[in-house]
Structure formats: structure tokens, C-alpha cells
Amino acid sequence: MTRFYEILVAAGFLVFNAGYLYLALALPQSPLPDDVGPAQLPVAIALFGLVLTVLYLVQACRRTEARKGGISPVLLAFIGLVVLASILSPLIGMALTLALFAAIGVVLLDGFTAWRGALITGACVFIIGFFGFSWLLDLPLP
Q1: pLDDT by residue (tens digit) across 54-81?
Q2: Cβ–Cβ under 8 Å, residues 126 and 95
Q3: How far apart are CA 46 and CA 75, in angstroms?
Q4: What is the spatial distance between Cα 84 and Cα 72, in angstroms, rounded to a whole number?
């Protein structure tokens, strides 16, 4: 039997993403050809969130056995990492925060022996975050 809270979490995500899609569709469209506004990015984010939520809901409903025990230490570490990243982001910048988050996440998942992969992942995320936003999209990162 599936855990009841997993279906509740999926329902909460479904409501959130549906509301986000509704608000994204309500954004005014600019008639200018070279608009600087959000264009269709918020709609794409909402649709991506809806797809992930539906996949999570299907996975939660198909699960037949419930695990007993407490919360995994890796899950608690990831929650702490997200909180730490949100605190550090205004202080050290978004690109560096994302790079550290990705590198530490790889270490949490694969162990400390994967430090080379963590460095490569962190460097790639930094390059994508910094150059992708600053150079390609001409958007300053906070």
C-alpha cells in the first residue's frame, strides 16, 4: 500500500503548478517584436512542473510496499543543502551557489570517492549558469 502522504504531496504540487500555469497564462503579452519580458518561459516552467507532478503521482500510486523507518539521512542532508543554498545565494551569487549545490549533491549521492565527478559537475553548472545567463541571454545573475 502506498503512503498516503505521497499522494497528498503530489496533489499539493499539482495544485501549485496548475495555479502557476494559470498565473503564467494571465501575464500580458507585449506587441513589441523585441520584447524584454518573460515571453513563454513561465508557461514552459509550469508545464514542466505539471509533467513532473503527474509522473510523481503515477509513481506514488504504483508503489505497492511501504517502507518502514525514519527519514533517510541523505534526504535530510539535501533539505539542509537547499536551505543553505537559499541563504548563501544572495551573499555569494547564484552561479557559485548552484555550482556548490551540484557538487555537494554529487558527493551526497555517490560518496566522497566521487570528488572528481563532483568538481566536474560543479564546474559545468557554474559555466552553464554564468555564461549561459550572462553571455547568451544577456541577463545578470543575482
Answers
A1: 888 888 787 656 566 666 787 788 788 8
A2: yes
A3: 25
A4: 18
CA nearest to 106, candidates 125, 93, 130: 125
- Give 137's DSSP letter: S
Cell of 46: 509550469
Secondary element (H or E) of residue 97 = helix 94-110
> Whole-angstrom Cα distance, residue 46 to residue 17?
6
Rg of the chain (C-alpha set): 19
Asked if 140 contacts 95 with a C-beta cutoff of 8 angstroms, the reply is no
pLDDT tens readout for residues 11-67: 888 999 899 999 888 887 767 666 655 667 788 888 888 888 888 888 878 765 656
Max Cα distance, the chain (Å)? 57
Q: Is the pTM of this model over 0.70?
A: no
